[in-house]
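[Automated response] Your request has been received and processed.

Submitted sequence:
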Amino acid sequence: MGTARTLVTGSAGHLGEALMRVLRGSGEDAVGLDLKRTPFTDRVGSITERRFVRECIRNVDVVLHTATLHKPHIATHTRQAFIDTNITGTLTLLEEAVAAGAKSFVFTSSTSVFGHSLRPAEGEPARWITEELAAQPRNIYGVTKLAAEQLCELVHRKNALPCVVLRTSRFFPEEDDDRVARETYLADNLKVNEFLHRRADIADVASAHILAARKAPEIGFGRYIVSATTPFDRGDLQQLRSDPSSVVGRHVPEFESVYSQRGWTMPPGIERVYVNERARTALGWRPTYDFAYVMKLLGRSEDYRSALARSIGSKGYHAERFAEGPYPIEKSQI
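Generated structure:
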């Protein structure tokens, strides 16, 4: 980004910290904004406070907007809090970015916006998830992320602010919220399985954001799925529902020895596959951490996580601990 000044919202979070680490490590002028004071937070305050946002965004060229209430907060925060942070906060940033003459705005959305569209009916093949799939949010998190996406598009069309929306898949290192999954698989087994269809390493997610900021003036407005490159193709979708091991064995045969050595297993079925082709094409994004690469690392007894992921580590979702898992589950999340 050369001499561009970048504002990173949510700088105390996983992705915000990742972006601050990468930008600062590259000698970029980056300002971190968050409610929490951390080594990566320069301005402490809320994105819902317009005067504060206006001060933070002065002389900023690029906004990387990662701050959010997300799925782990559904049972601990009100719906109004989600609207205030995820919708009103995003609108405030967009409007102040326009007023400040920012050159690009990147919004971190989520594959959660697809919601009900992600699950195939009994007997149907796995879903091939591209940007064309209809968004049908299942909870307040998905609703507010989709609304924020639409605000990005609206402000782009009305004010010509270049906006790129990145629908990210899982990249957090925390334990899974699904109790059955936690009891069935070792934590690393579960996460590595997800690199097949719904996980990305945070280093790749960060690089997608930085590329999106550079490309935004050329793109104008765009939505892109950001997930590890899957080894599968459309011809695999039916078999993935009942026999993923055979499909994976065809594409990445070395997985069998890696999994055998660790006593790991594949899931009995895979329901959906996130497809990142549009992001790779439009952004020039080349994610490193896919399932095949992870197998090479594990085959050499190396850590499957990037150095950036290891540096950030686990943050947890809440200050308190919950007996039922990493965070309480509301019925709308199930």
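Summary generated for your ticket: The CA atoms of residues 35 and 45 lie 5 Å apart. Residues 5-320 form a domain with the Rossmann fold fold (CATH 3.40.50.720).
If you did not submit this request, please reply to this message.
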